[in-house]
Every structure is written in C-alpha cells, then in structure tokens.
Amino acid sequence: MDWRGWAEIVFTIALTVAIGWPLGLFMSRVWAGDRTWLDPVLRPVERLTYAAFGIDSKKGQTWLGYAAALIAFSAAGFVMLYLQLRFQNLLPLNPQGFDGLSPHLAFNTAVSFVTNTNWQSYGGEATMSHLSQMAGLTVQNFVSAGAGLAVAAAIARAFAADRGETLGNFWVDLTRVVLYVLLPLSIVTALALVAAGVPQTLLANVEAATLVGVKQVISLAPTASQEAIKQWGTNGGGIFNVNSAHPFENPSPLTNLIEVVSLNALAFGTVVAFGRVAGARKEARALLAAMVILVGVAAAAIYASETLTPQPALAAAGISNPTANMEGKEVRFGPAASALWAAQTTGASNGSVNSMHGSFMPLGGGMALFMIQLGEILPGGAGSGLYGMVVMALLAVFVAGLMVGRTPEYLGKKVEAREIKFAMLAVLILPLAILGFSAVAAVTPVALEGLLNKGPRGLTEILYAYSSAAGNNGSAYAGLTANAPWWNTTLGIAMLLGRFAYAIPVLAIAGAIAAKPKLAPTAGTLPSDSPLFVGLLIGIILILGGLQFFPALALGPIVEHFQVLAASR
Amino acid sequence: MSMSLAKSGAFDQGVILTALKSAFAKLDPRALAGNPVILATEVVAALATVSAIVAVSAGQPALFAIQIAVWLWLTVLFANFAEAIAEGRGKAAADSLRATRVTTKAKLIIDASRNAMIPTPAHELAPGDIVLVEAGDVIPADGEIVEGVASVNEAAITGESAPVIRESGGDRSAVTGGTTVVSDWLKVRVTSQPGSSFLDRMIAMVEGADRRKTPNELALAVLLAGLTLVFLIAVVTLTGLGAFSGVTLDPMVLGALFVTLIPTTIGGLLSAVGIAGMDRLLKVNVLATSGRAVEAAGDVDTLLLDKTGTITFGNRMAVEVVPAPGVRPDAALRAALMASLADETPEGRSIVELARNQGVTAQSPAGATPIPFTATTRQSGLDADGKSWRKGAVEAVLKTLDLSENQVPAELRQAIDKVARSGGTPLAVSENGALVGVIHLKDVVKPGVKERFADLRRMGVRTVMITGDNPVTAAAIASEAGVDDFLAEATPEDKLRIIRTEQAKGRLVAMCGDGANDAPALAQADVGVAMQTGAQAAREAGNMVDLDSDPTKVLEIVEVGKQLLITRGALTTFSIANDVAKYFAIIPALFVGSLPALAGLNVMGLASPESAILSAVIFNALVIVALIPLALRGVRYRAIGAAKLLSRNLTIYGIGGLIAPFVGIKLIDMIVVALKLA
Fold it and tell me: CA nearest A530 in B: which residue?
C-alpha cells in the first residue's frame, strides 16, 4: 500500500465522474427528445427505425404499457438469442466450427445477456462463434443496457410529472439511448482501444510454437468493439474467459484506465441526467455523492485488505514480507488498479474483471461480494443503478423523513403506502434470490459437485454466484464450475428475478409517483440535497444491506478472515 | 377548559390494571392479525414453549429454553400492554361520557297547535321529531332549536361549567344531546339518528372503536411487514448455509434471532403511538373523527385563519388619543374618557382602560345623562352639569359640530388619515361642542400569535388570514400579525375557492369555522375544525370539533399531528438501528461453537453464547416497556425547521439507536451472569 495506489484510486474516480457529468447532460437531452449535435446523422436513422417498426413516437405509455413493452422486448430478445446459440453450428461466421450450445447453457447465456448480467458459464474463446458474439451477445449488450436506461428515463419523468398518466415511450427511449448514447460512445471507445493495442479481427485462431516448442493456440476475436460496449453498457461479458485480465482485452495501464472509466462513467452520468429531467439537480448530486463515497470506500477497503492483511499462505510458501497479495492479479495493473476495478465492477452491475476476485483475501473478496449485495446501485448498472438508488432514497426518506413531522416527500412527491409496497417488493428480491438459492444449493449434492472448495470459501463461492446472478453483475468467484444443469438453470432464474422482479415494481412506483401532484418544497420539507441526507442514505443502504446479509457473510468471508488472522499468529 | 376529558393519567392504577388484563386478552392471534410483527413474535414464542416443554419432559437441562420462551411471551405482552394502556386512557374518558347519556324520557310534541306531548324514550326519537326541553331537562338528542331561547349547560361535552345561550335561528341554534337546559325552554327538532348522535360519535372516537389504520400507518405497516419477511428469509436460509458450514443450529436460538431482528419495538408501539396522538388532541379538548385527520394535521401546508377571534381579539380597542392642536394630551384623553364612561361596549371599555393605564380616571358625575349610540346619530357620550362629551364616527361628529372637513385642523386630518391607513378606526371626540381629538381604535392582534406563525413558517406551513375587512385594514393587520397572505372582503365562497386552489397545487389545508355557511369549506378542507358552539351543519362538516370553541386551537392541532408523525419515525429509526448490535450479540453466539474464529465478532465481550442470546432477547423485550412513555407522550416537537429537526432526531434516535443496545445488552449480560441465569 503506498500513496501512488491511493492517488490512482482517487484520480480514477474523479476522472470517471468528470467524464460522466457531461455525458449525463447529453443524455438528458436524449431522454427529453431534444435536438443534439448528432441529429443530422442520427435523426434520419431514428425516423427510419420508428417507420420500420410502426412506432408512434408521440404516444406515451402508462406504467403498465411501459412494463409490458420492456417484457415483450426482453422476451423476444431471449427467444432469438436462445435459438441462435443453440444452433450456431448451422449459422455462418463460425471459423472454429463450434457446436450449438446445450439447452441449459443456451438458456443461461440468453437470460444472462438479455438481463444485462453477462454471467458466463462458458469460456468465450472455446464456445462462441464470431456470429454468436457479434450478432447475438453484442446486440444484447447494447439493447439490454438501452432497456435499463429507458426505465431510468421513465422514473426521471415520473418525478417531473404533475399528475401525469404516462411515463414516455419505451420504444422511443430504447431507440434513442442506443442510437445517440451507446453506439457513439462504443465506436469512439473501440477506436481508442484499437489505437492502444486491443485487437479487432474476424480471423480464426492462430497457432504458434512457443520457445520450448509447445504448440499454443492464440484465440482471436473482434475484441475492441465488444470491449467498448461491455464496459459502457455495464455488461461485463468478456470475449475471453478471463475477461479484462486477458492481455488482448486489456493490454496496458492505458487501456485499463479507458475501460475502468467507461465502466462507471455512464452510471454517474445517468444520475446527472435524472437530476436534469426530474428537475432535481441538487438532489441528484446528493445521490451521486453517496455513490462516489461508497464505491471509494469499497475500493479503499479492498486495497487495504489486499495489501495489509497478513498472508499466511504466502508466508508458508516462503515469501517473506510480501507487499501485496498478488495471486490472481495482473502485474501490469498492480493491487490498487485491481482493487479499484473490483469495487467499480461490483458496485456497478458490470461484472467484468481485471483480476480474479476468488483470489482476493477474504475481506477483499467479501467486500466485492457485499458491494453486489448492496443492490448494484454504487453506481450500478446502465439505468438500473439509478433506479435502484431512487428506491433506496425513497426508503431513506420514508423511514427518517417522518422525523420532521410530515408525510415524507421525495422530489416533491409524497411517499405513501403504494410506493413503499413496491419498494419493499423490489428490495425483497435480492435476499430471496441470493439467500434462498444459496441455502438450497448449499445442501443439494448435485449443486455441490461444481464446487472447488469446502468450508467458508466454498460458501462464499455459492453466495457470490447467486449474488452475481441476482444482482445482474456477472462476475464470478473462481472455483465454481457453473456449466451444469443445476447452476445454469438456477442462476438463470436468479438473473430473471433480479432484473424483472426489480424493474417492474420500479415502473409501478414510477406510475404512482407520476400520478401524484408535484409539490413545491417548503421549509417543512425534508431536505434531500444536504450532506446530512447523503449520510442518511448511506446509512440506510449499509444497514438494510448489512442486516440482510450479515449472517450469511459471517459464515463466509468473515469467518475466513478470522481464520486467516488466527493462522498467521 | 375547566375539566379535560382525558384527565386520567397514563399510569393511573386502574388504567394499568385494566391494561394488564387486556394485554393477556390480546394474546388471541385474531387480535394480532393486523400486526404481523407481533403475530410473528407470538408464533415463535409458542414454538419456543413447545420446545422448552419437550426439553423438560425429556429431562434435559431446560433453564435456558424456559427463559427464552418466557421472554418471548413477555415481548408480546409488553407490546399488547402498550396498546392497551393507550386505549385504556380513552376508555376512561368514554366511560365518563357514557354516564351522561340520556335515560330520561323526552317530551315529544305530537301536535304543535295544541302543544300535545307524549313522553318518549330518547332512543326512540327519529330525525324530524320536535321535542320540548324545559329548565332542568337533559336535551334528549342532537337538534336544531326551532323556537325559544335558553341557557344550556354543556359541561357534559365540553367540561365548561358556565352555561351558554342557545337560541333559534343563526349560528347558535344547535344543541347537543346530553347537555342540560338550565333556564327557560326550547323546542328542538331532532337531527340525529338514534345511536349516531354527537355524544355517540364522541364515545366511539374516544374509545377508538372504529380505529382504522391511517394512510401513513398503513405505509409503515407495509415496511415493517417487508422487513419481517427479509429477516425471515435471512434466518430460515441460515439452516441451509449453516449445514454447509458444519454448524448445528438450535431452532430455538434461530427463533430468538428472528424475533430480535424483526422490528418489534415499533411494531409493538405503533398503534399506541396512533391512539396516543388522538389522546393528546383530546387533552386540548379537540375531538377528531379519525386518526386520518390527526395525521393530515401534521401534513398541513396552508392554514386558513379567520381574522376575528383567531388573530385578533375580535373587538377593536383604543390604543391612542391624538389631541387637536392647542388641546393638552391629557385633556383630550379625559374628554375621550368622559364620552365613554356610560359606554358598555368593548370599544368604550377599552377607552376607559386606556385612560386608566395613562393615569387618567374619572367617576360619572351624579345626575349625568348617558347619551346612547344610535344608528342615526352614530355617536354616544355623556351630558352632565351643563357639559357634554361625545365620541363617534368622524363624519357624524363633524356633522353634529357643523364643521366641514376643511375646517378640521390639518394635524388632526393627517392623524385621521393615518389611523385609517393603518387599518384602524378613527373616532372623533368633542367636548362642549368643540373638536378636541381623535381616538385610534385598533383591531388588536393577540399576543404570541406572531411568534406562532413564525414557528409555523419555519416548519413550512403557510398562514392565510381571511377577513371581511377592506383591503387596507386587512393588509395592516396581516403585516402586524405576520401572516403570509390574506384575503380581504372575503365571503364564505371565497374560503371554499381558496381551499380548492391550494388543494389543486397538492397542498393540504386546515381551517376552522363555526357558521353554517362555513360548512362547505370545512368539508372541503383536509383538516376542518368546527367549533363546538357552532352550527350543527358546521359540526357535521368538519373532521374535528374543538370543545373549547377556540379558533387558535388549530395551531395546536397542527403541532399534535406533527408530533405523532415524528414519534412514529423516531421509533422506527430506533428500532431498525437497534438491529446492528443484536447481530453482534447473536451471530457469534450462534456459530462460535462450530467456528471458534467467529469469537472475533463478539465485540461486546458477552460471557457465553447462552448469556448473549438471552441478553439480546431480554433487551428486545424491555426496550418496548422503556419506550411506552415516549410513545404515549410523543417526541417533543420543536419548530426549528425540517433540516435541523432531522439532524437532531437522527442523532438521538438513529445514532442513539445504534449505540443504546450495545450498552444495554452488555449490562443485561452482566446481570444474567451475576444471577447465574445462563
């Protein structure tokens, strides 16, 4: 641990916010349907899209209509992707001649990409054809992120509305966000990555002879393009199995910086856009502050854990005075960049990795796990981070807001039984999916077959898998072989719950919020833009998340940590 | 307010005994159906009892199991007790009301022309019946006076023993069943259905018979039920996770963990807080028709206040006598005093009072002739010993003195203008046919009102003054009283219009009123406070009745509403914050047997797993009892603005809620160990 590491963490987060801010301003115009400087090029494409699909772009949807569109779109995406993966062997652009995927793997993968999770039960370079990657997975990388950002736009409009009936139009939001935000960002980033040395090719794998004469297969793929949307869309699904730890996906500290910034910038920007559209700029800054503080604290905790806690295993291996636990970390990135990436990818529902979380010290890995369990709102996935944070803000306002002697209000909208009901429904999904599935898997022999470790580490692997799935994160705690019917199926269900059993209550909240009159703030209104509110929000997030998962975490990373301490005495 | 309805103290012995009995009666699961948190606690308590019995009958050591079961039952009982004691205070008040119910026979007039009557039991009277009530009779039902004027003792309803005048026509024509005619007689047309009279409604309200959950209570109940489910998931799944980790978990201990985690504190006190809120209103002699109205009072954004009686005393008072040029000030004052000696109106008395305060007194000379005020002369005064004093409307006095306006000295003209511009009323004073000065009559703002409006403003409540005065007068009083806005030359329809406009902006409006023409506005307002002495239509339209008929009461009502919400929020925050410490007590205790490394989480240094669990359960039960007084009394309300109030309460109940159980559980653990209970 040294000052350079701390400086790197602070600098990177600051840079991410600095880039996210103008992006948010731009996206607020996209959400609002305003003119942008990209209009001359993209407006015709947008019009053509509406014409081709028969979309009446002026027509608003109620929350039910919006939710129905989201589900219909996701269901159609799932069916198409499932069929494409099952039968990729019959389709072109398959230079390696890969087989079609098994039903359970195709189910898991299709769900995974449609829900913006990008959990990968497969190794990309040994499973997926170029067509599956480009026309299947990458398409979902764009549109699943677009769907999340569309829901965020809907809830922003709900807060702006005064007795409104509609939340906007899902098809329009989806089209505009993908066209004006995700595509341009990805093109620019992909080109930057190519310039920085990331390969982009449709050629088949190359065989090389190593110095010792062994034949090595060098996997090739259109990497840079997927890398860009993988990060911007908080997808996280790598072309290669080891994701951004792979030297083709992430060859240098420069590409690492580009990728880690694009991992969180849009989520921060979404909050800014929310503030603009909802007419709550200061309050949005408070949400942003809570996100930045918590992701910063998590990065610091992981960095400290990887560099400060005693490492008895290394000591036993004869390494005296190791400066950091470097197992599973890339030397070209070092502990600080690895810790920061881990915090940012688990705080967002991204799930890309540049180091192996399963090789972290117990508390470092536990922190990554806890970040996912906090609900993927720090700053969260494309759109989903914002709307998850708004749910937390509603709960915070409700619990503490009564203490100012009024029915709580958030952004000029009263928080009443209906909002609380749907907020609790959404909040219940995580413990149900994570703890429920984990508890069953922990005593189910067929599930345990895929587990590498016993004891606390094994339990952490299980918890991490279901947390990652339910949180739509997609990263893994190595040690679990998940490509088996049990895991593919249950993880797929967890992903579906985490996405839709959360987004639909959120849309219901948006519908209720929109219908309420917009109240002007008075001196009696709970201020939701103050440092005090940031503290309150952080407290609610930590206490609510901590209370749900503390017992399970005690049996996993926490007890392992104490065991490590005991072993190093 | 000579007697208060809610006079019985919280810890009156009789109330406590009744509450204790009722706490056991409420163990019936059906009674707990509306309270999922406490119902869940009861289920766990029952399961713990079974497992304790099993242990005892199997001859195993069962001291621990028995204690856990007992404390879980106590948790439920404490919660029931809290509710029962809150209800008990209302019941005591209701019983005293019930005692005043009419049992005598009413004199039902069956033929008005011949005054033929038949005695009829009060409960057989139907709306439209006309009854005769004479001195000494109890009025058998609510009604409107159709004939007669009488003084009525309404102590049964208001606690106020001085009789009030009730007469037919106008806003004083409503009478209430259960009150007594003291002198004269009345013919009353019955307006209430049997069983739904004002008294019946009062009893029902006070008892909380048809207490339904308020919107905010409902939202909070959803949150608490949701949290209960979250903890159910967290605890139940521990069995699977524990099995994987090689930990054997005692179901009893898991049950104890579950109960300590679910928000039993606020769950147990929630309904007590609500009942206590109504009770606090009752203490200031206000009856609310529903808890919803009390809650709405806390949310009020705009207060519509009648100027007269609420903001000002309602009578203009003399504040100054401006002498005419060349007249000594005390001579002018003396002339004003002489002109008012025979004037018994409040204005006249205020002039006498003003003079006395400035050291000028006089007795009415013997043989003096009072000159009364008439509508044509518009002045009054006194003639004695050949001298004469007059005071009255400026034009009228000038006319009598045969002066044109231009003949009035410039200084005096300016003084008259100034008084009028400031919203006051100028009265000219003459002595022996000469103009000697001008009295400044002013609508005097009640003391303390301005400060209360400032308090309200700090809490985001806007005050709007409604008055029939002209805009100049209204503006002057508005600025003196510090209201945010005013409506001059207002009609009852204007009130209704203002309420609708405010509500269209999403604001909640409170107002008070007593006239029949206030009824539509009272019904439209979110909080409509009717005066007990007011018209029957007004009393039925409002959702609160002020038994003291004091329009300033609406300020207290707003404060009680806010206090109710604050108390609820504070206890919820406290309850949730408590859980952190409970985890640190129970989680290590639960696992340390199989995973010794987890002893590191035992930050409180609790003696043994058993003592830790027992202490957490005991703390969880006792904290309910400890907070009953707070729930009943309510968290103190301070008008310091939302931001400061939040930071203050968050510190006390949030941070305090985090820390208190660490201390409490540690102390209980030391006692448990000292008593060798575990």
Answer: B643
Separation between Cα atoms, residue B213 and residue B35, nearest integer Å: 11
> Within 10 Å of residue A436's Cβ, how many Cβ atoms?
19
A443/B580 CB distance under 8 A: no
Is residue A265 situated within a structural domain?
A: yes
> Domain span at residue A65?
3-208+215-279
Q: Which two tokens stand for residue B453?
A: 């409006």
Cα separation values, B551 from B312, B546, B547, Å: 11, 8, 11
Tell me which of A71-75, A494-498, B140-144, B587-591 is least confident.
B140-144
Chain A residues near residue B463 by CB distance under 8 angstroms: none
Residue of B4, B206, B3, B210 whose CA lies nearest to B94: B206
Residue A106 inside a domain? The answer is yes
In DSSP terms, which residues pair with A8 in a beta bridge? none
pLDDT level of residue A315 (50, 70, 90 thresholds): confident
Give tens-digit pLDDT for A6-35.
999 999 999 999 999 999 999 999 999 999
DSSP character string of A21-72: HHHHHHHHHHHHT---TTHHHHHHHHHHHHHHHT--TT----HHHHHHHHHH
pLDDT tens-place string over residues B103-148: 667 888 888 777 788 888 888 888 889 999 988 888 888 888 888 8
Phi and psi torsions of B120, nearest 5°: -135, 135
Neighbours of A195 (CB within 10 A): 12
**What DSSP assignment string belongs to A253-297?**
HHHHHHHHHHHHHHHHHHHHHHHHHHT-HHHHHHHHHHHHHHHHH
Residue ranges of chain B whose pLDDT lies below 50: 1-10
Judging contacts by C-beta atoms under 8 Å, the chain B residues touching residue A536 are: 646, 650, 654
**In the Cβ-directed half-sphere of B149, how many Cα atoms lie within 13 Å?**
6
> Residue for token digits 């049964």?
B156
| Count of domains forming chain A | 1
Long-range contacts of B193-197 (CB under 8 A, 24+ apart): B193/B126, B193/B127, B194/B122, B194/B123, B194/B124, B194/B125, B194/B126, B194/B141, B195/B123, B197/B141, B197/B142
A with B: how many residue pairs have Cβ under 8 Å apart?
229
**Which among B223, B301, B595 is the nearest to A424, CB-wise?**
B223
For residue A114, being part of any structural domain is answered with: yes
State the nearest Cα–Cα gap between B227 and chain A, in angstroms. Answer: 8
Sign of the alpha-carbon dihedral angle for A239, A241, A244, A248: negative
Nearest Cα neighbor of A464 from A437, A424, A429 is: A437
Identify whether B95 is a catalytic site residue: no
Mean pLDDT of A131-136: 89
Neighbours of B233 (CB within 10 A): 20
Neighbours of B100 (CB within 10 A): 17
pTM as predicted: 0.89
User: 3-class DSSP state for residue B470?
Assistant: coil
Burial B572-591 (b: 16+ CB within 10 A, else e): bbbbbbbbbbbbbbbbbbbb
Going from the C-alpha of A487 to that of each of A58, A434, A568, B240, the distances in angstroms are: 44, 13, 35, 17
Q: How many CA atoms lie within 13 A of B326 on its CB side?
A: 6
Q: Are strands B485-487 and B462-466 parallel, antiparallel or unpaired?
A: parallel
φ and ψ at B488, to 5 degrees?
-95, 165
Maximum mean pLDDT: which of A106-115, A236-245, A516-525, B192-201: A106-115
Give the pLDDT confidence score for residue B210 in this predicted structure: 56
Give chain A's length.
569
User: Which amino acid type is present at position B28?
Assistant: D
Residue A426 lies in a domain: no
CA distance A70 to A57: 16
**What is d(CA A545, CA A430) in angstroms, rounded to the nearest whole number?**
10
- Tell me the shortest Cα–Cα distance from A393 to chain B, in angstroms: 14
Instruction: Give the C-alpha separation, A532 to A534, whole Å.
Output: 5
